[in-house]
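Recap for those who missed Tuesday's class. We walked through two folding examples back to back. For each one, the amino acid string is listed first and its predicted structure tokens come directly after. Nothing is annotated here on purpose, so try labeling regions yourself before you check the end of the notes.
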Amino acid sequence: MTTTKVLTSWYSINKRDFPWRNTINPYKIWLSEIILQQTQIKQGLPYYEAFTAKYPTVFDLANADESDVLKLWQGLGYYSRARNLHATAKHVVDTLNGQFPNNYKELLALNGIGDYTASAIASICFNEKTAVLDGNVYRFLSRYYGIDTPINTTIGFKVFKALAQDILSKKNPAEHNQAIMDFGSRQCTPTNPDCTVCPFNKSCVAFKDHLVDQLPVKIKAKKPIKKYFNFLVFVSDSRETIIEKREEKGIWKNLYQFPLIETEKDPNLKEFHSQLKDYTIIKDLNYELSLYNDVDIVHKLSHQHLHTKFWIINLRKLPISGIPIKKIRDFAVPVLIENFIEDFNF
């Protein structure tokens, strides 16, 4: 029995019912794939349902304000995905008359769409013979064929892409691609896969050679940089606070936050109080400073760990214009700020 037949046979029994599995609408497939990048299905599903309810077509998404898109995305992280999502919707509407490209090559040219997403849309919506390659597929192929080429390298991508393409079903690439992704996700799991019930256990190299725990191989990333973030949470007598929009490039671009002071080390109350003397907007003002969290809140990103303190500044009147505290939940903020807002509860 061929690899495809085993995969699709397994899939016919174990297929999960998700809303994006019941459509070949490229807008909805694209939306689901962007949301599910670096996101578990159980977390991404409510966002997919929220987006399709609020923006049922690509025209609705294109006509939305970016701030509304970011607000709806709040909590998913990797906010560049949301910005690219909105920009691509506008491009599809303004330049392509609302029609997504119907082939891998042209899909790949769209903002925020890489090899995997282009392959998924092209095969599922247009039955193009192009293989998907995500973490689940890498894992299955690496174990089944006993390949120890690091998956997060250029050479690794070429090796595994060629192999995935070689075993791809030419008759039904859509079903094959969905089957191999689901198989990697549910059967050939990252840790402790139950190889005794795997339909490939008689021919799997990793199982035969006791390499399941060692494959796939991935080159370790550089150690994340430590940064020290100090957010200033102003609270005036009239129940107003100050937030600012991040304009510079970065993962939080166009999101809102409390005024931020980045320090070279983790300051205590006395040290930070001294540093505030040079902070322009509260210089020479009377205020009461307190630390909300004695222990740093560590927000871990792929390339940096943010050691975060929230400093509460109570004062009679804000030094610059602010917003009513009751409206703070109207703004799109990073999850780090969102969690503080919920915990502090003003």
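Example two. Treat it independently of the first, because the proteins are unrelated.
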Amino acid sequence: MTTQASVLENLAEVRAMIRRHKRNDFLFSIVGLLALMIGLLTLLTLFVDLVADGYPRFNLDFLTNYPSRRAASAGLLSAWVGSLLVMLVTFFSAVPMGVAAGVYLEEYAPKNWFSDLIEINVTNLAGVPSIVYGLLALGLFVYGLGFGESILTAGLTLGLLILPIVIVTTRESIRGIPVSIREAAYAVGATKWQVVFHHVLHYSSGGILTGIIIGMARALGETAPIITIGALTFIAFLPPSPVTEAAPFINFDWLQSGFTVLPIQMFNWLSRPDHAFHINAAATGALIIVVTLLMNGTAIWLRYRIRKNIKW
């Protein structure tokens, strides 16, 4: 009887502990949901406020006109073209190198203290404030290599900014691939390169692509490093076209051109006392948020589609 009573007592304690843990889980989920809703409502409120202020400028002329000293006729043409060209340089300077570095560190690098040191530093660099990259680019690209205050400098600066993000997301995506896929490929005689290229990269492409798009979205909204390297706040011309009508049909003069980007143009209009320019700045801010949300939404959609089409 004593043994049975002890068992029943222990069972009651276990049930009480389970109920207590379930209650704590429920309370934590409520707190987390409230925190999420507060963040989303704050963002939504700010976005609605920007849209309400900038609504009068939501038209095609705002995207096709050059900046002007008259707020009613000022536009974003040079800013969004500059952002597009800077993002182009950022993509080609950071993405191939970041993906290759992530694959090497995860699949080829020996597991020793040196690779651990590299991993720690890459992870830390992902959290470094963007202004630090601007100061680094100012000394290295502007003065050291003589690239000047150009699109090339801006693209390389933002490339350095998102490079650790691309490396970290690539490694995390590769780590999520089951070991059984590698073992099955080796079992049928595949080489190391074939396993990595045809299987590991194929199955991890969704996560890698998501990290790339999220990194590009962050670079699009960065202001501090672009200001540090001397981006123009007022520019009423476009860089030379990357494509020409004569052979070899490619022009690289635009890399050395002066530029401005959307956040810089927004900053310029906010710094002016005329309220009409503040309306332009609000419209620009809403546009940046919409583009950023579209890029993040595209990343989520692509990851879902890729994972849905892959058969494990």
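Answers for example two:
The first helix runs from residue 2 to 54.
The radius of gyration is 26 Å.
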